[in-house]
Design goal:
- The complex is a heterodimer of chains A (111) and B (112).
- In chain A, strands 2, 4, 5, 9, 10 and 11 form a 6-stranded mixed sheet that branches. In chain A, strands 1-3-8-7-6 form a 5-stranded antiparallel sheet, with no helix packed on it.
- The model of chain A has no long low-confidence stretch (mean pLDDT 94).
- By secondary structure, chain A is mostly beta strands.
- Chain B is mostly beta strands and 112 residues long.
- In chain B, 0% of the residues lie in helices and 51% in strands.
- Chain B contains no helices and 11 strands.
- In chain B, strands 2, 4, 5, 6, 9, 10 and 11 form a 7-stranded mixed sheet that branches.
- In chain B, a hairpin with a 6-residue loop joins strand 9 and strand 10.
- The relative contact order of chain B is 0.34.
- The chains are: A mainly beta (111), B mainly beta (112).
- At the A-B interface, strand 5 and strand 10 of A face strand 4, strand 5, strand 9 and strand 10 of B.
Chain lengths: 111, 112
């Protein structure tokens, strides 16, 4: 059974701070990793994906992948109250295959 | 921007009744999925569909569940005889070859 763990949280940061969200996964063969944002009562919304070791930046978001440690993280710079949501880490079983989701980390950005 | 659309947004059904949840995937996508999320729990995979057949299904997707792509645009999930524990948000998703999955807004299914 492939596992995706998001054990930290909930997380509360002040507006303008950096929020760091972490995720570990059990399948060493996993090749791609996705971060979805889910507002309360809404659907998951893709915000970042990463395939290669290292960092990938998109605006205020940076995804970091360390395949040796089976660890993927999401950094949100200059956090805004509108970033308050649950962030889901998701790992596919293969190309175009099912996603296994973590339980999510709830982020609250205090004005 | 193209999006996945789901109808209805909320479905209330008596236990034991059949329910059909409808989805229109993004038009050029080839891969279609159903997930569900029970309130307060993880998003769980139900089934994936490609080339007019099921490619993968979870243990949740038992004989009470079926999927269909009746025409070139719709993708449906049918629950034949609903149970109380089927109450959840049901999300449809679609993707292109080797691309991330995009989710619809979901259908909230309430079984009474």
């Amino acid at each position: 059974q492939k596992e995706v763990e998001q054990n930290s949280g909930p997380l509360s940061v002040p507006e303008g701070a950096i929020a760091s969200l972490n995720c570990t996964y059990s399948d060493r063969g996993s090749q791609s990793f996705f971060w979805y944002r889910q507002y309360s009562g809404k659907s998951p919304e893709l915000i970042m994906f990463i395939y290669s070791n290292g960092d990938k930046e998109d605006g205020r978001f940076t995804a970091q992948l360390n395949k040796a440690s089976q660890y993927v993280s999401l950094l949100i710079r200059d956090s805004q109250p509108s970033d308050s949501a649950t962030y889901l880490c998701a790992v596919p079983a293969g190309a175009n295959s099912k996603l296994t989701f973590g339980k999510g980390i709830t982020l609250s950005v205090r004005p | 921007e193209p999006e996945v659309t789901q109808t209805p947004s909320h479905q209330v059904t008596q236990m034991g009744q059949e329910v059909i949840l409808r989805c229109v995937p993004i038009s050029n996508h080839l891969y279609f999925y159903w997930y569900r999320q029970i309130l307060g729990q993880k998003v769980e995979f139900l089934v994936s569909f490609y080339n007019n057949e099921i490619s993968e299904k979870s243990e949740i997707f038992d004989d009470q569940f079926s999927v269909e792509r009746p025409d070139g645009s719709n993708f449906t999930l049918k629950i034949r005889s609903t149970k109380l524990e089927d109450s959840a948000m049901y999300f449809c998703a679609s993707s292109d070859q080797h691309q991330p999955q995009h989710f619809g807004d979901g259908t909230r299914l309430s079984i009474l």
